[in-house]
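pinging the channel bc i need a second pair of eyes. not urgent but kinda urgent?? the chain im working w is below, pasted from the shared doc
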Amino acid sequence: MKLDTDYLKSELKKQVSEQRYIHSIGVAKTAKELAIKYGEDPYKAKVAGILHDYTKYWQKEKMAAVIKENCVLSDDLLQYNAELWHGPTASIVIQEKFQIKDQQIIDAIRYHTSGRENMSMLEKVVCLADYIEPSRDFPGVDEIRDLANKELDTALLAAFNSTIQFLLDKKLTIYPLTILARNYLITEEKNKK
């Protein structure tokens, strides 16, 4: 069953700031474009892009409660920066709120902030779209956009490298799934040679 994306957008608008709404629509558009380019379902990419930040502005306590109530989420998540929480919590909330049962969409939303080992194509597309959508403006984003037009895994690896370097520079903890995702991409690249 396909959901009306205009309805999803209107529901998202009730949850996030105007700037975050613009970002989410940019992610949906970019994810759809990447999906078409790399042979993934553009509708699923668009839906995941629209909803990926659905719980971004929820109170930490509310997100923590969702994490604690759902054993499918990693218990250690609460030990890391709350900026990571909205992906996993949104992946839970959208299932009930919108009756989304498609595991690919759920996982693309869940892992869009952290990545993970052996990401599906949809997960890669949404994760990278979140990083490079048109309203993003930070040093190195244009290079990663260029890479995304040539080779998805190379662009995603560059995005993970950039994120990890940012966290290192700020002396912040790095969620282990992000390191595992990066290492997996490196291993995959070596195995192609």
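so The chain has one domain: 5-192. and The domain at 5-192 is CATH 1.10.3210.10 (Hypothetical protein af1432). — does that match what u expected or am i reading it wrong
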